[in-house]
Write a structure and sequence with these properties.
Layout: H1 2-33, E1 38-46, H2 53-62, E2 68-69, E3 82-83, H3 97-101, H4 105-120, E4 133-138, H5 144-157, H6 166-170, H7 174-183, E5 189-192, H8 198-211, E6 217-224, H9 229-237, E7 267-275, H10 276-281, E8 288-297, H11 307-321, E9 330-332, H12 339-353, E10 361-363, H13 366-369, H14 376-390, E11 392-393, E12 416-417, E13 422-429, E14 433-440
Parallel strand pairs: 4-5, 4-6, 9-10, 9-13
Antiparallel strand pairs: 1-7, 1-8, 2-3, 6-7, 8-14, 11-12, 13-14
C-alpha cells in the first residue's frame, strides 16, 4: 500500500509539474513578446594581430600572422617556445604607473579594451544610467601571472613580501570589478568561467540579461593573459599544445591534416551590448543585432569534446534566433588546431546543419592569433561583426593539407568577398562547456 501511495504521489507531482511547465510556457510566450532586442554599439579589442578592433579586423582579413617566439620570459628551461603575444602594449599609456602596478596583465588588457569600446559606443555613464549598466566578463584563469609571481615571492623572499594587492589582482572577477569602479557601472557585475567558452558564455548571459529587461546595457567580453611557464608546461604535458616550436608562424593550423595542438594566445575584447530601444534613444551606431545563444554541456569527458553537445548548442541558438540552418552564412569556428577539437567541431556542424553544412563558410582565426583560452570568443565576435558589415569572410590561415575528417569549406588561406547576413560564433571549453552566439546584420 505504501508503495502504491508513493507511486500516486510521484504521479501527482509529475502532473503538477507538467501543469506548472505549461503555465510557465504560456507565461514565457507572453514574456517572449516583451523581450528586448539586443544590439552591439561599441567594440574594443587587443590581440596578437592588433591593439585596436580595427587593427585586429584588418589583420584577420589580410592573413596577418600574430604568432612568434615568446618574448615575455626566457623559454630556455621549457619545451614551449611560441605564443601569440599582444605586442607593444604599454600599460602606462592607459593608466598611471601606480594604477598599472596594481593590476594583473589580463586586467590591464581588459581595461584598455573597455576604454576603446566605451569611446566607440560614445557612452557616458552617470547617475542617470549607472544602475542600468552591467559588466559581465569571461576569463578562464584570471590573474594567473599574479598568482604564480606572488607565490614565488613568498617562497623566495618570505611571506611578508607578498603584495597586499595580490588578491584583487588574481581574482578572475577582478577585471569586472575594476571596470565598474573606473566607469561607475552599477548594474549586475560578474565573471563567467567556463574555460575556453568563457567569453561566449559571458556575452550570451549579457544578451539574456538585456533581452529579459534586467539591464539596458552590459559591458561584456573576455580577457586572458597566461603566456607564462607554468600554464604552458601544464597544457603541454597534457598533450594540448602544438609541437611545431621551431616554426611559430605555421604552428597553429586549424582543420589541417597535420595539426597537432594549439598555440596559446593572449588578449582582451570588450563590447557594449545594448537594448535596441536604448541604442536608438541615444542615437548610437549599431554594428549588429545579437539574436541567439545556445549553452550546453557534453556530460562526457573533462577534456575530450563530444560533437553532440556542440551541435545542441548551435541548434538551440538557431531556434532562439528563429532562423533555419540554410540562413546562416558564416561560422567563426572554435577551430583550435587540436586533432580532437577540429574533427569533433566539423562533425557537430554536420549534425546541427545537415545538408546546409556543405554550403556554409567556416573559418578559424587561431592560425593567426593562437588560442586566447577564456577570451577566444572575442576574436570570433570581431570576425562575425566584420563579416556582417563588410561582406568579407576572414580565412583559416596555414591550411595546406586537407583532412578527410574535416571536409567542409574552411575558407582556406585567403579572405573571400561574400554577403553575410547571419553569422555564428562557436566556443567550447574543457569541462564539456559549449557556447554558441548568433549575430544578424542590422
Amino acid at each position: 500500500m505504501g508503495q502504491m501511495t508513493d507511486e500516486l504521489s510521484t504521479f501527482a507531482l509529475r502532473l503538477d509539474l507538467s501543469v506548472e511547465l505549461e503555465v510557465m510556457s504560456d507565461n514565457n510566450h507572453h514574456h517572449h513578446a516583451l523581450r528586448q532586442r539586443v544590439v552591439i554599439t561599441g567594440m574594443g579589442c587587443l590581440s596578437p594581430i592588433g591593439n585596436t578592433t580595427a587593427e585586429t579586423w584588418d589583420g584577420l582579413i589580410s592573413g596577418k600572422q600574430g604568432l612568434d617566439y615568446i618574448s615575455l620570459f626566457d623559454t630556455k628551461d621549457i619545451a614551449v617556445k611560441i605564443g601569440g603575444e599582444v605586442k607593444g602594449f604599454e600599460p602606462t599609456a592607459h593608466f598611471g604607473v601606480k594604477e598599472a602596478r596594481r593590476m594583473d596583465r589580463s586586467q590591464q588588457l581588459a581595461l584598455a579594451a573597455t576604454k576603446e569600446a566605451l569611446t566607440d559606443a560614445n557612452l557616458k555613464i552617470d547617475e542617470s544610467n549607472a544602475a542600468d549598466i552591467g559588466v559581465i566578463t569571461g576569463s578562464g584563469i584570471g590573474g594567473v601571472g599574479t598568482t604564480i609571481g606572488e607565490f614565488a615571492v613568498m617562497m623566495q623572499r618570505g611571506p611578508r613580501r607578498v603584495s597586499p594587492y595580490t588578491v584583487p589582482m588574481m581574482m578572475p572577477d577582478g577585471a569586472a570589478g575594476l571596470i565598474s569602479i573606473m566607469y561607475g557601472a552599477r548594474g549586475p557585475n560578474m565573471n563567467v568561467t567556463t574555460a575556453c567558452a568563457s567569453a561566449n558564455n559571458a556575452m550570451g548571459e549579457s544578451f539574456e540579461m538585456i533581452a529579459s529587461g534586467r539591464c539596458k546595457m552590459v559591458i561584456t567580453g573576455g580577457l586572458e593573459a597566461s603566456i607564462l611557464p607554468f600554464p604552458l608546461v601544464a597544457f603541454d604535458n597534457m598533450g594540448a599544445l602544438s609541437g611545431y616550436n621551431s616554426d611559430p608562424k605555421h604552428a597553429s593550423r586549424p582543420f589541417d591534416k597535420t595539426r597537432n595542438g594549439f598555440v596559446t594566445g593572449e588578449g582582451a575584447g570588450i563590447f557594449v551590448f545594448e537594448s535596441l530601444s536604448s541604442a536608438q534613444a541615444r542615437g548610437a551606431k549599431i554594428y549588429a543585432e545579437v539574436v541567439g545563444y545556445g549553452s550546453t554541456a557534453d556530460a562526457k569527458h573533462i577534456t575530450a569534446p563530444d560533437p553532440n553537445g556542440a551541435a545542441m548548442a548551435m541548434r538551440l541558438a538557431m531556434k532562439q534566433a528563429g532562423i533555419q540552418a540554410s540562413q546562416v552564412d558564416y561560422i567563426a569556428a572554435h577551430g583550435t588546431s587540436t586533432p580532437l577539437n577540429d574533427a569533433s567541431e566539423t562533425k557537430a556542424i554536420k549534425f546541427a546543419f545537415g545538408e546546409a553544412a556543405h554550403t556554409l563558410k567556416i573559418s578559424s582565426n587561431k592560425g593567426a592569433v593562437g588560442h586566447l583560452l577564456g577570451a577566444a570568443g572575442v576574436i570570433n565576435v570581431v570576425a562575425c561583426i566584420g563579416a556582417l558589415n563588410h561582406g568579407i569572410v576572414p580565412p583559416t590561415i596555414n591550411f595546406t593539407t586537407a583532412d578527410p575528417d574535416c571536409d567542409l569549406n574552411y575558407v582556406p588561406n585567403t579572405a573571400i568577398h561574400a554577403p553575410v547576413n547571419v553569422a555564428m560564433s562557436n566556443a567550447f571549453g574543457f569541462g564539456g562547456h559549449n557556447a554558441t552566439l548568433i549575430f544578424k546584420k542590422f
